[in-house]
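Working notes for the structural subgroup meeting. M.R. asked for a predicted model of this chain before we commit to crystallization trials. I am recording the input and output together here so anyone reviewing the notebook later can reproduce the run.

Input as submitted:
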Amino acid sequence: MDPIKTLRSRTVVLPASDVDTDQIIPARFLTTTTRSGLGANLFADWRYGGDGAPKADFVLNRPEAQGCAILVAGNNFGCGSSREHAPWALTDYGFRAVISTQIADIFRSNSLKNGLLPVIVDPGTHGWLMEHPGAEVAIDLESASLTLPTGRAAHFPLEPFAKYCLMNGVDELGFLLGKEPQIRDYERRRAAGPVR
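Returned structure, recorded in token form:
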């Protein structure tokens, strides 16, 4: 995955609350074990009509949504069943961050492990973002802050290990593989006698 140190993008606003993982990526698309192609089915039941044609009134189908890397969603985003396919679909579509006042715990954990930054902000900041779709915002991972075009900054929670992985573009396995020389050294010393 690509590292995220700073992210500057216009926002797409999805005002719905309690968006569950089956709405993010419907279960019928969970037959794959790869991330590629899932973005085409992101919010499929909301984006497309029964004939498969894009619905002109859905936010992702509007021209101003193209190229946006930040999704602003209503409260309790990502609730429902646990599926890594949900953050996979969002990142395959092109999103790098999701902003809300509340993000479901399992979805949040899956996102952090798969290169999608879940940003939890205060109601005032969230309200401003909901009222200003398409606003260009800046996210800085080092300071774990989001800056609005007005200059107002809001801090969000981000665990140090998750921050390290996102900033370095590695997942948990990649992090462990990066420690392979130290692991081999430890195993060599352990085989030779008590490790000190």
